[in-house]
Design a protein that fits this description.
With 173 residues, the protein is mostly beta strands. It contains one helix and eight strands.
């Protein structure tokens, strides 16, 4: 039986995916010459650190540090992780690094942007070894913390929960 949080994650992902079929994903986020190979719902945190604002030593801001999320298959089974780099690591040891190509605001207020990333395999053969592009869509949450970033919280980190669908593409044959 699925844990309630994973069931909710999958239900949210399925509903969100249904809302983005067709023209729901901006054209700027569509990879060229690729075909969809896999969709992996993710759940985790976006990690932020309270820092001095660049160019203003009297101001503070929450700065993005890294994602820390688990990836699931469509049945709710954990298949890998997503972390700093950005990198996606499958349970089989294969991994893929991403480089930002394009971004679009999430249609849901308070949610991190949707992204298109160019991908490079950096690990052994496996689930992610043929991936050429990655989309992050259907995001919910994950924006900078709402709690104050000030002198007292300087240097402290905070994780903000988010969910997203990561869509992995491979080269068309």
């Amino acid at each position: 039986m699925l844990k309630p949080t994973i069931s909710l994650l999958l239900a949210t992902g399925i509903v969100a995916a249904a809302c983005t079929i067709g023209s729901g994903i901006p054209r700027t986020l569509e990879p060229t010459g690729s075909m969809l190979a896999m969709v992996a719902p993710a759940s985790g945190v976006q990690v932020y650190e309270c820092r001095i604002r660049q160019g203003d030593i009297d101001a503070f801001e929450w700065a993005f540090v890294a994602p820390d999320a688990k990836l699931y298959d469509q049945d709710g089974k954990e298949i890998g992780t997503h972390g700093a780099g950005p990198v996606w690591i499958a349970n089989d040891g294969s991994r893929v690094m991403g480089k930002l190509v394009a971004r679009a605001d999430s249609p849901i207020s308070g949610s991190i942007p949707w992204l298109l990333l160019a991908a490079t395999s950096t690990g052994p053969a496996g689930r992610f070894s043929a991936v050429t592009s990655i989309q992050r869509v259907n995001t919910l949450g994950g924006t900078a913390p709402s709690k104050p970033c000030n002198l007292e919280s300087l240097g402290k980190k905070a994780g903000v929960h988010y969910t997203a669908d990561y869509r992995f593409f491979i080269q068309k044959h």
